[in-house]
Recover the amino acids of this structure.
């Protein structure tokens, strides 16, 4: 027997993160969290579940493999700001689709 997640009640109308329209509706999904569809632009997203955190050992494997960035936040922020500045120098005007 396969366990299925209980269907969540339709979430309250949420503003689309892509266009800001407030006429989203729930669409069919196999996951527990409702998948919303923007009526204006067609963007689909899952509303951030409040208060849900991964288990305490979730990141242990990443730490053991050295995949967690060890830089302090201020050093990392400076590094990323420099990278962003370099990218912005070479960007072309227009819009960018982030997939």
């Amino acid at each position: 027997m396969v366990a299925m997640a209980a269907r969540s009640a339709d979430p309250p109308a949420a503003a689309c993160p892509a266009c800001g329209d407030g006429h989203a509706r729930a669409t069919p999904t196999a996951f527990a969290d409702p998948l919303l569809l923007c009526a204006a632009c067609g963007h689909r997203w899952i509303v951030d579940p409040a208060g849900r955190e991964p288990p305490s050992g979730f990141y242990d494997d990443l730490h053991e493999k050295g995949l967690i960035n060890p830089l302090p936040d201020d050093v990392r922020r400076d590094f990323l700001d420099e990278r962003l500045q370099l990218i912005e120098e070479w960007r072309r005007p227009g819009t960018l689709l982030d997939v």
Q: What stands out?
A: The radius of gyration is 19 Å.
